[in-house]
Structures are given as C-alpha cells and as structure tokens.
Write a structure and sequence with these properties.
Layout: H1 2-8, H2 11-31, H3 35-52, H4 57-77, H5 81-101, H6 103-125, H7 130-151, H8 169-183, H9 189-197, H10 204-231, H11 236-252, H12 256-273, H13 280-303
Helix pairs in contact: 2-3, 2-11, 3-4, 3-6, 3-7, 3-11, 4-6, 4-7, 5-6, 5-8, 6-9, 8-9, 8-13, 9-13, 10-12, 10-13, 11-12
C-alpha cells in the first residue's frame, strides 16, 4: 500500500510544503488577513524551485529574492500593459532557454515566474499597496529558504534537458496574452498567461502532448469543480482553504494530469463560489493551448522553404 502510494505521491516534498502552507492558512483564518496565505503560496513555490533545482544555499537565496522581486515588479508593471507583457514574455522565454541547458533550471525558472505572475497580478488587481505586502512576502521567501537550508536536498542526479521550443514562441504567446489580460483588466488573467507559458515545452509533438494533458485534465476537473461550487456556500475561509489545497497539489501528485485536474477542480469551485464563471478555467486552458499551437504552426510554415 505504502509503495503504491509512493509511486503516485511525493510525500517528501508535499510534507515540507504543508509545513510552510498550513501555518500560513491557519493564521489567515484566525486573523482574517489573506496576506498570510500569499506568504504561504510564495513560500511553497520557492521551496519547489529550491528542491527540484537542488539549489545550494546561495543559489536558493538568490531564487527567493528573484521570486519576491518578480511579484513586486509585475504588480507595478500591470498598470502599463505593454511593459507587463514584455516582462512576462521575457520571463517565459528565459525559462525555456534555461530549461534547454539544464532540466533542473526549467523547474527553478517556472517556480520563480509562477508566484511572480500569480501574486503580482492578484495584488495589482485588488490595488494593493506594495510596501504593505512586502513584509509578508519577504517572510514567506525567508521561510522557504530556511526550511531548505535545514532539511533540503542539495545536488544529486541531473535529468537530461528537454527539447527546446522554437525561439521566441514563449515570448510571443505569453506576451500577447499578458498584454490582453492587463489591458482588458481580465479577472484571474494570470491563469490565461500561465496556460500559454506551461505548454511551450518543445516542438510540435511536445506542445501537442502537453496541451492535451492540460485540456483533458481540465475537462474532468472543471465540471467537478463547478458542481462542488454550486453545492457549497460562499465564504472567505472556504475559498482560502481551496487555494491552499491547490498549492499542495503542486507537490502531492507525481503525475501531471491528476495534479492539474485537482487544481482545475479547485479553481473552478472557487470561481463558482464567488459568483464567477467556473468554466473560464477550461476556456483559459483551451484558448492558450490553441494560440501556442497556431503560432508554432504559422512559424513553421513561414520558416519552411518555398
């Protein structure tokens, strides 16, 4: 039983993520201040980057600083959609280039960009004062670094780098969607932007495979989430608990598809609870994947000899 569970769940990283996230959730519920949860989310993303990247002490500290700075930078740039788009596009493209050099660097880049995009967009959307958010976010980054320092993995086996996507693919697709999300003040626009960045993983076959994994998982998770949201009553504590569960799904499941299905279910349930369109999660995933495939196909056609 335990061996079968270990094949499907990463108990090592999930338990360490829970150590960071559950106290933050508890303090958010007790105090009614969602900044505790933001700190916990940043801490979990930083820990994932440090652990999967097998970063040393100095490299882990640098990653935490970059994630923190990215949150503040994207929140500040959001008011200027063109600059916000350029920053998001460059970050996504850099992650692709680094991933081609070393597989672990892809995880480090992703989990530096993810909290910057999600928390930065959310802070900008609600008009947060960045100086008031800084102590909470800095505390989360510091907590992740301290836990990694005390009980983290450093060095070890290196996976073979993956295929590099077409040059500029992530920059164009992520930048375009980031501009649209910021310019139109799209609610939860960070989901759409990351949906494009996450499928820029290689050539046509790799992008198509990753897109299908996400779309098929969302097709299962989103309807379940909508049904769950309709069955529950709206409350801030419940919404925060769903957000925390979504973060834990990043580390609990080893396979990508069940992890993404769980996150899609929780996101759709949250949207439904607050009176939004739960199916927007599925639309984000499908639209972003379609755009990346379209840009990749057009680029290949233009580059082919005629």
């Amino acid at each position: 039983m335990s061996a079968a569970l270990a094949r499907h769940c990463d108990g090592y990283l999930a338990s360490r993520s829970a150590v960071l996230l559950l106290p933050a959730l508890a303090m958010a519920l007790i105090s009614g201040d969602p900044r505790w949860l933001s700190a916990g989310m940043l801490a979990v993303c930083c820990l994932i980057a440090m652990e999967r990247g097998r970063l040393g002490i100095r490299a882990a500290a640098l990653q935490a600083v970059l994630a923190l700075a990215g949150c503040l930078l994207l929140a500040w740039l959001w008011r200027w959609p063109v600059w916000f788009a350029l920053a998001c596009g460059l970050a996504a493209e850099l992650g692709c280039r680094l991933g081609r050099r070393r597989a672990a660097w892809r995880s480090v880049a992703n989990f530096t960009f993810i909290p910057a995009l999600y928390l930065g967009y959310e802070m900008a959307e609600r008009g947060a004062v960045l100086s008031a958010e800084l102590p909470w976010l800095a505390g989360g980054a510091l907590a992740a670094w301290a836990l990694h320092l005390l009980a983290g993995r450093v060095g070890g086996a290196e996976r073979k780098p993956g295929e590099s996507p077409a040059f500029g693919l992530a920059f164009v697709c992520v930048g375009l969607l980031a501009w649209w999300a910021a310019a139109s003040r799209l609610p939860y626009g960070q989901w759409l932007v990351w949906s494009a960045a996450s499928v820029c993983v290689g050539g046509w076959a790799a992008v198509r495979s990753k897109s299908w994994q996400r779309v098929s998982a969302a097709l299962i998770g989103v309807p379940c989430g909508v049904a769950l949201g309709l069955a529950l009553s709206d409350s801030a504590p419940l919404a925060w608990a769903m957000a925390a569960a979504g973060m834990l799904s990043l580390t609990l499941f080893r396979a990508y598809r069940p992890a993404f299905a769980a996150r899609s279910m929780l996101a759709a349930a949250h949207l439904t609870l607050v009176g939004g369109l739960g199916l927007a999660r599925l639309l984000d995933v499908g639209a972003a994947a379609a755009l990346v495939l379209l840009v990749l196909a057009v680029g290949g056609w233009l580059a082919s000899p005629r």
